[in-house]
Design a protein that fits this description.
By secondary structure, this protein is an alpha+beta fold. It has four domains: 12-79, DNA Methylphosphotriester Repair Domain; 91-187, Orthogonal Bundle (Arc Repressor Mutant, subunit A); 214-308, DNA-3-methyladenine glycosylase AlkA, N-terminal domain (TATA-Binding Protein, 2-Layer Sandwich), CATH 3.30.310.20; 347-522, Endonuclease III, domain 1 (Orthogonal Bundle). The chain contains 23 helices and ten strands. A hairpin with a 4-residue loop joins strand 1 and strand 2. It comes from Leucobacter coleopterorum. Residues 94-192 form the HTH araC/xylS-type domain.
């Protein structure tokens, strides 16, 4: 083994103190490699801490593996939920990490990723090794390996099916990578699952055919997770044909994947109440989901879309630490533990829907978005499919292809709103990037240059679609009322200390203000 030095951005003394104190708040953000054992751990690992000279600290599990370490069997660092640290940055390395996390290497390869980011493969590799400690291929391999282990533990899929569901190109590559990551062949890992791709969950609606694989999983996230508030958000923004909110406490949502349109069904009743999560002291909670997929190859894209939708990579303790001493937000943290910042399952759909929702009620916006989904559904490739009862996301090219007058008549819009929608659809169809790897500054500038789109729309798209945790719609009326200010300038000035989490601050303020308003109306 020839461990590389730790990335320069990590403070060794701070990391070692965290590991010595078994501080779980650092789990997933820092990894400890022990040169005397060849093992890498979470900072909170209960094993006896090694001497400082035997420690190396890394910002990713992939960097540990690239340095020659394998995962600890005791603390399971591979099972730590993701982190949004890379979402708070807008530079090249952060954009690359986000795209790899979304499966770009599997979809287009390292060369395709470099082209997307407008750099050479060599430059991309060098930058990632310098800052993350691992190459693009190593980051992608580690992502696949961790996903494969979760599928091994939670499902009864064959190892061959798991290999391809996790994105491996061959069974041999799967075996080699798992041995490199965990020091054991896939067949040597424990299997605890009782699910099966052909097993039917308790689904009275039965929306899928037997040919569509179905996986029951628990997606891990850091505790606490405010499930009730998340479900309420999804219900309030449910789009006809794209979402179903059932009376039995479940919800189902169309998720667009390379093979067509998947459906995720979430059993909210099976998520412990926030008070129970806090009382138990557990560091993570599993969100029970059932994925109905066009094919097993769509497993990873579907899981990542659900994680983005539910903000499962958030770190509540990190957000709480940022706001704990703030006179405005300090009390809200106690009132709303585990609140998340929901993301967009489909960036283009969200941007179009945001334009439709300008200056109309939430109910009216849902109706318009339903018409958009029904009238401009993306045509899926032959052999792929859309689950019965659900629609694929709207295709911007189809929206842009008809006249403004026809668009106005078909959706029931004002002419000005139809013109804005058409302009945005044309920009999206012509390559306006609102995905995980987008240049956020450029995307904001291009959106703001479109006629009919102002700062409020731009920041809302940045928050939900671009995934920027620091997005801040300072002109939002509810936000300004919650802050007790009357101008954008005042709202911006108040929020400077909340960076880089102004998006989370906005979510706290919105939630608290709307609940207080609802209480007043009930009196």
């Amino acid at each position: 083994m020839n461990p590389a030095s730790s990335p320069a951005t990590l403070d060794f003394d701070a990391c070692y103190r965290a590991a010595s104190g078994r501080d779980a708040r650092w789990d997933g953000r820092v990894y400890l490699g022990v040169t005397s054992t060849g093992i890498y751990c979470r900072p909170s690992c209960p094993a006896r801490k090694p001497r400082p000279e035997n420690c190396r600290f890394y910002s990713s599990a992939a960097a540990c593996v690239a340095a020659g370490f394998r995962a600890c069997k005791r603390c399971r660092p591979d099972a730590v939920p993701g982190t949004r640290d890379w979402d708070a940055r807008g530079d090249l390395v952060a954009r690359a990490v986000r795209r790899i996390r979304d499966g770009a290497v599997d979809a287009v390869g390292v060369a395709g990723l470099a082209d997307e980011l407008a750099v050479s493969e060599r430059h991309l590799r060098r930058m990632l090794i310098e800052e993350v400690g691992a190459s693009p291929l190593q980051l992608a391999r580690t992502r696949r390996a961790h996903a494969a282990r979760a599928l091994i533990e939670e499902t009864e899929l064959s190892l061959t099916d798991i290999a391809f569901a996790a994105g491996f190109g061959s069974v041999r590559q799967f075996g080699d990578t798992m041995r490199e990551e965990f020091g054991v062949a896939p067949s040597g890992l424990p299997r605890r699952g009782s699910g099966s791709p052909q097993r039917r969950a308790q689904d009275p609606e039965g929306p899928t055919s037997d040919e569509r694989p179905k996986l029951a999983l628990r997606l891990r996230t850091r505790a606490p997770f405010a499930a009730e508030e998340m479900r309420a958000y999804l219900a309030a923004h449910a789009i006809p044909g794209r979402d179903e909110i059932a009376a039995d406490g479940t919800s189902a949502h169309a998720i667009d994947v390379p093979g067509g349109t998947a459906v995720v069904r979430i059993d909210w009743h099976d998520v412990p109440q926030v008070s129970q999560q806090l009382e138990s002291g557990a560091d993570a909670v599993g969100i029970p989901v059932t994925l109905t997929l066009p094919s097993l190859a769509d497993t990873m894209p579907a899981i990542q879309a659900v994680r983005r939708l539910l903000d499962l990579d958030a770190d509540p303790s990190q957000v709480a630490e940022a706001f704990s001493g703030d006179p405005v937000l300090g009390n809200l943290l106690q009132r709303w533990p585990g609140l998340r910042l929901p993301g967009a399952r489909h960036p283009q759909e969200f941007a179009l829907g945001t334009v439709l929702g300008q200056q109309v009620s939430l109910a009216a916006a849902r109706t318009l978005q339903g018409r958009l989904a029904a009238g401009f559904e993306t045509k899926v490739a032959s052999g792929a499919g859309v689950a019965a009862g659900f629609k694929a996301a709207p295709d911007p090219a189809l929206v842009a292809a008809i006249s403004v007058d026809d668009l106005r008549e078909q959706l029931g819009l004002t002419r000005a709103r139809a013109a804005t929608l058409s302009t945005l659809a044309s920009a999206l169809a012509n390559g306006l990037d609102l995905g995980a790897g987008a240049d956020r500054d450029r995307a904001r500038a291009e959106l703001l240059a479109l006629r009919g789109i102002g700062p409020w729309t731009v920041e809302l798209v940045a928050m939900r679609a671009l995934g920027d945790p620091d997005a801040y719609p300072a002109g939002d009326l509810i936000l300004r009322r919650a802050l007790g200010v009357t101008s954008d300038r005042e709202a911006i000035a108040l929020a400077q200390s909340w960076r880089p989490y102004r998006g989370y601050a906005t979510q706290y303020l919105w939630s608290d203000f709307l609940e207080a308003t609802a209480r007043k109306e009930q009196k």
